[in-house]
Design brief:
191 residues; mainly alpha; 0% strand
């Protein structure tokens, strides 16, 4: 389940970078391609740390009186790092949204990208809620309240991922984003 979330997050990083190309550099303080490089690197580091912790916990779980605490703590560290990096991404996305609204950049684009823009915001929010849930869930341990009550998993993990992915089945970026060179996206807006 972690790998699927990371694939969808990469698509969001790419989509945000594409929006920055479409709307212009004034819509972000980072270059469009940096979103993918910075946040994918953070995701890879996080996954490696989680895998190491998971392997250690799994190895201890098979032993009589095995202590899974060290492996679990390492997994939690990986999840917390991932939550930290996605929090930074959310801050960047909020800055992007603030800049596009303040500068009325969406009005200057040919075609209607507002539904896709809204889909991206919804998807980011769902992924963020899921990331918070996962950090809290595993920090409670293998016998914690959240991990032992399936309703939270369904609502805060599964449903969040379904929404964050399904929205793009109806509002696919390939159908909505303008084609061509970034300079051709903009139209003059009378002021």
């Amino acid at each position: 389940r972690r790998q699927r979330q990371d694939v969808y997050k990469r698509q969001i990083y790419i989509l945000l970078g594409r929006f920055i190309q479409v709307l212009g550099r004034e819509s972000s303080f980072l270059k469009p391609n940096l979103y993918l490089w910075i946040f994918c690197t953070c995701d890879v580091v996080s996954l490696v740390v989680q895998a190491v912790g998971g392997g250690m916990a799994s190895g201890e779980a098979d032993k009589i009186d095995g202590d899974t605490a060290t492996g679990t703590h390492i997994m939690v560290a990986g999840i917390v790092f991932q939550l930290f990096s996605i929090t930074i991404f959310v801050v960047c996305a909020v800055d992007f949204i603030r800049r596009t609204m303040r500068n009325r950049l969406l009005q200057s684009v040919t075609g209607s990208v507002i539904p896709l823009y809204a889909a991206m915001v919804l998807s980011i929010m769902c992924i963020y809620v899921r990331s918070i849930y996962r950090a809290v869930e595993l920090s409670q341990g293998w016998e914690g309240y959240l991990i032992t009550h399936e309703v939270y998993f369904i609502a805060l993990d599964g449903a969040m991922m379904v929404v964050s992915v399904a929205v793009f089945n109806f509002l696919h970026p390939g159908w909505i984003l303008p084609r061509g060179k970034p300079d051709s996206y903009k139209t003059e807006v009378p002021r």
